[in-house]
Every structure is written in structure tokens, then in C-alpha cells.
Hints:
Blueprint: E1 6-11, H1 16-19, E2 21-27, E3 33-44, E4 48-53, E5 60-64, E6 69-73, E7 79-91, H2 96-103, E8 106-112, E9 118-124, E10 133-140, E11 147-152, E12 157-159, E13 167-172, E14 177-181, E15 185-190, E16 195-199, E17 209-212, E18 217-220, E19 227-233, E20 239-242, E21 248-254, E22 257-262, E23 271-276, E24 284-287
Parallel strand pairs: 1-3, 5-9, 5-11, 6-10, 6-12, 11-13, 12-14, 13-15, 14-16, 15-17, 16-18, 17-23, 18-24, 19-23, 20-24
Antiparallel strand pairs: 2-3, 3-7, 4-7, 7-10, 8-9, 19-22, 21-22
Amino acid sequence: MPMRPTLLICLGGALFLSLGCEASKCDGENGQSAVCLKSLKRFDGETVTQTAAYTAGADVSVHNRNGNVEIIAGSVDDSVVATFQPFVLRAYDTSESVVADDLTKLEASATTDADGSVTVDVSRMSGAESTLGADVTVELPPSFAGALGLDQDNGETRVKFVGSATTLGVTNRNGSCELVTGASDVSVHCENGDLSARIDGATPQSGQGFRTDNGSITLTLPADGVFSVQAQALAGGSVKVEHLPAACSVNAASDAAKTLSCNGATDADPIYSAKAAGTSLADVTLTF
């Protein structure tokens, strides 16, 4: 009677607890056919920096399938600078030649489009490992005043600078989001992760606001602004208000739905929206 394949546990460390394992064929203790699960290790490639010409007022879009994205202030007004840190997660004992081949299948670019807008893109060739990606740092011109858009499949989003952006649009399908903004059109959707945002200045809003499908939201607000926030915890969580200034008031429809108004705000003033969904642990916190 032929022996059945055996499944062996992860080897080589505790990283599999957070990063998973890689399966490969191997021999069992008694020579039988087996499948070994090996813990993953991150292998980094060489850092690459690309520069794209930028025209004042043009838009910037960032697309990344796998890896963190950070947006910071640059030092020149006529360029967008993108720095890519390639990586791949493979079994801890993967050979250098295999890793090197994996990294050749990453496609990363920073280009200026025909209309003057800049696109920063990270993708993978067909057949590439699903764990192949790159962490990206994008340096915006100090005088940036266009629309900023981020589309991310997996990884953390960190927006530390938006300049005078007219629009901020963020979609992150798996990862936490942390950002600052003073844009008048804000649509931030952090699908699976917590969202933390600081609003530097209240401006009229035309976007969809701040949303999560599975995560909490924390908004840090300007105490001297004239604005309102409509906050909802949609999955059984609660809306919390911390360090409430004397010039602000809270109207509570329930623990999970509250409207915050500051400095005499009316319907004619900026109105922000914050909606957290997912589980009963998904709260909305408004703080100053």
C-alpha cells in the first residue's frame, strides 16, 4: 500500500506566525513523499530612485500592488522623486539566484504623462511571486497644488505631506492608513486596517470622507476651525470625542452616531464624514 504524503510543520523560526509559510516538496522522516512548510524571510533588492518632470498644478497618482507607500515633501518644484525598495518574501533558505530571478519580475516606474501629470507605478510581471513588491517613498514638490491619488492593494499608507492638494483620494485594500490633509475633496477608503488622519485646515468638502470596512478611525481636528463632523460606527462600535474645546458641541443620536460642530458651524461650512465598519471593535475617535 503506497504511503500518503505527509505535511511537515514550518521550519526555521517564528516568522510564519505573521507572514505565513512557503510549501515545497520534500522527503519525510521515513523517506515518504511530503510537503514541507518553511517560514518566510524578506529578501531586499537594490534601492532604485527615479525622477519624473513635474508641471505646476499637475496631478500625481501612485499605484502599488504590494508594499508600503509613503508621501513626503521634496526639495524641488519641477520634479517628483520616487524611491523604490524591492523585496520578495520566500522560504528562509531560498537561494540567492532564485531571489535574484524573482526580483527581475518587478516593474517600477515614475513617468510624466502627456497632460503633465505624474504616475508612480509598481506592478509584477505575469507569473511573478505574489509576495513580490516594493516599498515606495514619493517626494512631492514643496509647491504641490494638484490632485493626489493613491491606490494600494497591500501595505501601509503614510501620507505625511500633501502641500496645497485640491484633492486627496486614497484606496487601500489591506493595510493601515495614516495621513494629513487640508484638501477640499477628501475620499479615503482604508478597507482592511485602521485609519488615522489629521486635518490641518477645514475646507469645504466634496469627497466621500473617511471610511473603513474593517478598522477604527481617529480624526485629529483643528480647534480653531469652523466645521462639522458626522461620525458613525456602523458595526457596533462607538463614537468617542476627546479633548473637546469649549467652542465645540456634540449632538449624539446614539453612542454609535454623533455630529460634532465647532465655532458656530452651519450647513454652509465644511462637513466631514467618518464611517467605521467591520466589528464591534471598530470605533470612531474625534480628538483635538
